[in-house]
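Section 4.2 – Deliverable D4.2 (structural model, holo form)

The reporting period included a commitment to supply a predicted holo structure for the target in complex with phosphoric acid mono(formamide)ester. Inputs used:
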Amino acid sequence: MTVAMQPRERAVPGSGPATAGSARTAAPQPPAAPEVRMPRHLLSAADLDRATAEHVLSTAQRIEQAMAGREVRKLPTLRGRTVVNLFFEDSTRTRISFEVAAKRLSADVINFSAKGSSVSKGESLKDTAWTLQAMGADAVVCRHSSSGAPQQLSAWVDGHVINAGDGTHEHPTQALLDAYTLRRHLGSLDGRRIVVVGDVLHSRVARSNVLLLSTLGAEVTLVAPPTLLPVGVTNWPAVVSYDLDSALVGADAVMMLRVQRERMSGAFFPTEREYSRSYGLDSRRRDLIAGHGIVLHPGPMNRGMEITPQVADGAGSVIVEQVANGVTVRMAVLYLLLSGESDGTASTVADAVSDAAGGLA
Ligand code: CP
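Output (structure tokens):
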């Protein structure tokens, strides 16, 4: 189903259509607002066209405004709904962020981690999915080491599935929170130059960001050693470079990627020191970006390898803000998927969020 992101129409005296005998000619109509197509599941950043991605980001902004200055940071919007955090792989930020987001929307939250569950006794993903289904999960937030696991899960459960990072494939809510952070500092991303640096080969964050940021009009440059670029990267909507210094000059933002040593079975670069020298972000390199430019990192960071502590904690770094924005953006995603708006049954977001704000305890 699609939902037009239109404000409720109000009758304006004298604005009705011309009737027979009327001398008035029809006034030119403004172009129709692009349709928002909220998917049933959020599995990939490619599930979001520009209008829908902007709708998610503007919803997050409205939620942030509705929550600002409130003593009780909770909206009743998802009362009675159940969100399951299904994490088969370690996580700090994403798991806690989804838990806080769901609780701030008053949903019931169940945290499931593979460690300590029947998965360690050999239970399959399908049997786990059926168990969640039987327990009435309205949404399943899934992280898995296998690319495609959330997609597979979506075929087995009736609830909405959100990909919280699958293998080296995608991490769409990370890209949304990154885009939200970028827009807070840079405004529109149209024509903005964003440099993404590091282990692109193993990075689901890079893949989702390239898709989403290019959808939002940004010009993305990927910088990595050739050994850490995936086959087919030239087909991605991004420029590829091996020269970090020249890519950084005048950039609006630089996003450093974690070197994922746990996914590396061979030698992808000579030494860590060599990697840092060629692809690490230190203060000299940070000063190459535009004066208004910002530094991002999805975390967890290898301090001293892909980024120095001075840069991670210094001027222009928005790494901590990314984490805070993650809660707001995930509230928007849960809200849009679960509130019924994607089925066309909810009122406009502006109404719903202000209703929710009015209903605060
Ligand atoms: N950015 C990110 O996905 O971090 P976690 O692995 O801690 O969730």
